[in-house]
Amino acid sequence: MKRGNDNSPQSNMDTFWKGKSAIVTGAASGIGLALAAGLIERGSRVWMADIDGVRAQKAAASLGSGVHPVTLDVCDAVAFRKLVEGVARDAGAVDFLFNNAGMLFSGEVLDSDEAQCDRIIDVNIRGMVNGTLAAYPLMVGRGRGHIVNMASLAGLAPAPLLSMYSMTKHAVVGFSSSLRYEAERHGVRISAICPAGVDTPLLDEGPLSGAESERWRPDVRNYLTLAAGRLCTPQQVAREALRGVERNRELIIIPARARLTALAYRFAPDLVAAFGRQVVATVIGKGRG
Q1: Residue 210: is its pLDDT beyond 60?
Q2: For position 15, what pLDDT does the model report?
Q3: Is 136 annotated as catalytic?
Q4: Region of poorest pLDDT, from 29-43, 85-99, 133-147, 202-216
Q5: In a designed cystine with 154, which of 1, 159, 209, 217 is the match (CB 3.0 to 4.6 A)?
Q6: Residue 246 pLDDT > 90, yes or no?
Q7: pTM of the model
Q8: Do strands 96-99 and 145-150 pair parallel, antiparallel, or not at all (unpaired)?
Q9: How do beta strands 251-254 and 96-99 pair?
Q10: Rounded to an integer, what distance in angstroms lies between the CA atom of residue 150 and that of residue 76?
Q11: Is the pLDDT confidence value at 146 over 80?
Q12: Interaxial angle between packed helices 114-121 and 163-183, expressed in degrees from 0 to 180 and rounded to the nearest 10
């Protein structure tokens, strides 16, 4: 009987993940939880960080051993640095950092305010930067490591009715793609995950109260389905994302039809714009009457 080839793709992938340490932010639910589960399945040790520590503990308990739940507000640079340094001390290194934590505001910019803008920038951009500034120097010192930032198809093409969210995700793509070329000189990898619509708790913005109750918001799930097709599951995104990390992809665009949208916007922007206007008119027409 033939013995397995140690240089087979499966063996290489086992080596790629097994025994490695990974921090995943926003890990108590959705894509973060799916990423953590996928990493555990592949033999990594995972620190599941989330602003809701109780939910992080419950999520970690469902994944078995090798998982460490942590309470973390990614907007707190000092706390993020302490987490990264603690993992590096306990595990010997931080091999992977998944800057996944994020938030979403939907609706027209006309109905938005400065507080919402400040909050989404703090979480989606500054949170990612805080993690990067904490982990990147340690990875450079070792000559290896991989930082994976959660962007979106909305960071590659317009996303009307999600304008502030799209703004932050364009920033994530720009930061990640630019840093990638600096980092490769030091043996460090940088990637950005760019999924289309994903059915996660991120879409559940919660009920509006007080003055905000007058603000109109679209049905985000319906809007994303009209704009980008059937929503992906977090498990699908995690599976394709981890495959893209293995292959050191700069932009991991999920699913395949999202790659077509990104290409169409690059080479035929007027066509994408015409479709986008039609979708927005339909959504606003149904929602606002």
Answers
A1: no
A2: 86
A3: no
A4: 202-216
A5: 159
A6: yes
A7: 0.92
A8: parallel
A9: unpaired
A10: 18
A11: yes
A12: 30
How far is the C-alpha of 101 from the C-alpha of 202, rounded, in Å? 10
Catalytic residue among 136, 165, 223, 265: 165
Per-residue pLDDT, averaged over 126-137, amounts to: 98
Q: What is the Cα–Cα distance from 283 to 289, expressed in whole angstroms?
A: 10
Contacts of 12 (CB under 8 A, 6+ apart): none
Which residue has 């097994």 as its token pair?
A: 18
DSSP the chain: -PPPPTTSHHHHHHHHHTT-EEEEESTTSHHHHHHHHHHHHTT-EEEEEES-HHHHHHHHHTT-TTEEEEE--TT-HHHHHHHHHHHHHHHS---EEEE-------S-GGG--HHHHHHHHIIIIIHHHHHHHHHHHHHHHHT-EEEEEE--GGGTS--TT-HHHHHHHHHHHHHHHHHHHHHGGGTEEEEEEEES-B-SGGG------GGGGGS----HHHHHHHHHSSPBPHHHHHHHHHHHHHTT-SEEEESHHHHHHHHHHHH-HHHHHHHHHHHHHHHHHHHH-
pLDDT band at 44 (very low <50, low <70, confident <90, very high): very high
Residue 6 has pLDDT above 80, yes or no: no
Question: How many Cβ atoms from other residues are within 10 Å of residue 125's Cβ?
Answer: 18
pLDDT score, position 215: 77
Maximal CA-CA distance, the chain: 73
pLDDT of residue 214: 62
**Which class is domain 9-288?**
alpha beta
Query: What residues does each domain of the chain span?
Result: 9-288
